[in-house]
Amino acid sequence: MRRQHALRSKLFAVVAAAALSVLTFGTPAQANHAWGSYHWARTSNPFTLKLGDNVTAAWDSYLSTASADWSQSTVLDTTIVAGQSTRSCKATSGRVEVCNRTYGNNGWLGLASISVTGGTHITSGTAKMNDTYFNTATYNTPAWRLLVMCQEVAHTFGLDHQDENFDNPNLGTCMDYTSDPDGPPSNLHPNAHDFDQLEAIYAHLDSFSTVDQTQSVPQVGDDRASWGRLVARDGARDTFVRDFANGDKVITVVYWVR
Ligand SMILES: [Zn+2]
Ligand SMILES: [Zn+2]
User: Fold this and answer.
1) How far is Cα 130 from Cα 117, in angstroms, rounded to an integer?
2) What span, in angstroms and rounded, lies between the C-alpha atoms of 91 and 258?
3) All domains in the chain, ordered by first residue
4) What pLDDT was estimated at residue 91?
5) In the chain, pLDDT over 70 holds for what percent of residues?
6) Which among 63, 77, 213, 244 has most CB atoms closer than 10 A?
7) Ligand nearest 254 Cα, by number?
8) For residue 13, pLDDT beyond 70
């Protein structure tokens, strides 16, 4: 009996070690490249996410490029549709709204928010570009516009940055902070690691979908006070969480002007 127990303990230890090694080494990207475990609930892959076009003509080509770039993912496609937001970029259920506006000298270049239900499932997303800065000589370049558009849109999939240091060499992805988006290498498009990470985030399927749903979703504004509490600070990136009724949350990630 004792011997059997010891054997079982040993077996358990081996299984536990194997499980731990899978956790530790099996998905290396998982640990540092997702916001949390936030993702759109859906019943099959690839799923199609609508990007509501609330942007002005100056931004249309960058939205188109970002949409095409991310649609190369094997787990998701994006399609650009007419925007449903007012100029305030109100979040709408089951989709993403993309907006630009002169939001003012508030310190942020780009802003992405997702509403989350049940702890992990995304129910809406917004991506905002602040023309107050994109109208200045520093940021009024195709490279800066494309990098920030590519990055903010991807945050609404649940994808995080690969790196938040402005001063190290570019990683060759729009999910990398930089002082020069043109590089080399350029940080204007996703790279293979981003697509690997999306596959990890969307590896499982859900029994229901939050895509194209129409339930009401909580809202936050453009001002820091509306974003809730600061929960993470990594270099120049800040993440805020605001709690709403029924455990719903809105998570906001900020790209501050340097
Ligand atoms: Zn899920
Ligand atoms: Zn970001």
Assistant:
1) 27
2) 27
3) 34-256 (3.40.390.10)
4) 97
5) 84
6) 63
7) 2
8) no
Spatial neighbors of 17 by CB under 8 A, at least 6 apart, are none
pLDDT digits over 85-133, tens only?
877 899 999 999 999 999 999 999 999 999 999 999 999 999 999 999 9
Q: Which of 208, 210, 205 is nearest to 94 (CA)?
A: 210
DSSP letters, 2-52, are HHHHHHHHHHHHHHHHHHHHIIIII-TTHHHHBSSS-EE--SSSSEEEEEE
Buried b (16+ CB within 10 A) or exposed e, 43-57: eebebebbbbbbbee
Distance 1 CA to ligand 1 centre (A): 43
Given a cut of 50, whether residue 233 has pLDDT beyond it is: yes
Neighbours of ion ligand 1 (CB under 5 A): 41, 206
What pLDDT, on the 0 to 100 scale, is given for residue 33? 53
> Position 99: which residue type?
C
